Amino acid sequence: MQTQRFNATREVALDYWLSVPDALKDSAEPVPLVIFLHGAGERGGLDKASIHGVARRVREGEQFPFMTLVPSCPAHDWWFTHIPTLNALLDQILADYPVDPRRVYLTGLSMGGSGTWHWAMHNPERFAAIAPVCGFGVDLLYPDGGIDNLKDTPVWTFHGALDDVVGLHETAQLVDALKMAGGQVRFTVYPDLKHNSWDAAYGTPELYDWLLGHARP
To answer: How many angstroms separate the CA atoms of 199 and 150, rounded?
Structure first.
C-alpha cells in the first residue's frame, strides 16, 4: 500500500492511498481500478479514510482483483467542491500505473455516495459503473446536476429504509429520474437498516462482480 499526497493546484491538496493487490503487481494486462469516496465523518486524514466500506476491507487484508484508490477529503470540505482535483488525480494515476481506463469504477458512502453521484454526473465518460451508497443531495444534484448524463452508465445504489440521517427519498428520487432518462439502475433497499447501509452493501460479494462485469466501449 502506498500513501502519497497529490497537489493539483497550490490551493488544494488531496492525500490519498493506493492499494495494489499482490496478485496484480506483475500483471501483464491493464488492471481495473475502484475509487472509494469516504463519508463526512472520515474527513481530514488518511487514518480516517479507511474506517468503512471497501477501503476498510482492503486495509484489513482482503485481496480484490482490482487496485483501490482512496482519496481523503479535507476537513470541513465536501467532495463536490473537489471534482477538478479528483479528475486531475485520476489522470495522474492513469499515467503512472497500469490501470485500464475502460475499467475504472466509482463508489462511496453517505457524503461519498453524494460525491459518487456528483462526480459521475459531471464526468460520466470516466467510469464503467458506479455504486453510490446512502448518498444525499437531491436539491444539489437534481435536476441541475444532470442526471440524464448517467443514462449510459450502469448504476447500483443502496440505501436503508429507516435511514434517519439521509432519507431514503434522496436516493429514490435520483433512481426515478434516472429510470425516466432510460438509465440502467439497480436499487437495493434494506428494510431494517438505518444510515449504516454500507456494511451490508460492501459486504455483498456480487457488488464487486457486478462492477468488474462492466467496461466502457
So the answer is: 25
Sheet with 13-19, side-by-side order of all strands? 2-7, 13-19, 67-72, 31-37, 99-109, 129-133, 155-160, 185-190
- Comparing 132 with 11, the larger pLDDT belongs to 132
pLDDT in tens, 29-54: 899 999 999 999 999 888 899 899 99
Instruction: Provide the 10 A C-beta neighbour count for residue 185.
Output: 19
Burial environment of residue 65 by CB neighbours within 10 A (0 to 12, 13 to 18, 19 or more): middle
Amino acid code (one letter) for 161? A
Architecture of domain 2-212: 3-Layer(aba) Sandwich (3.40)
Answer for the pair 150, 156: CB distance below 8 angstroms, yes or no.
no
Identify whether the C-beta of residue 119 lies closer than 8 Å to the C-beta of residue 83.
Answer: yes
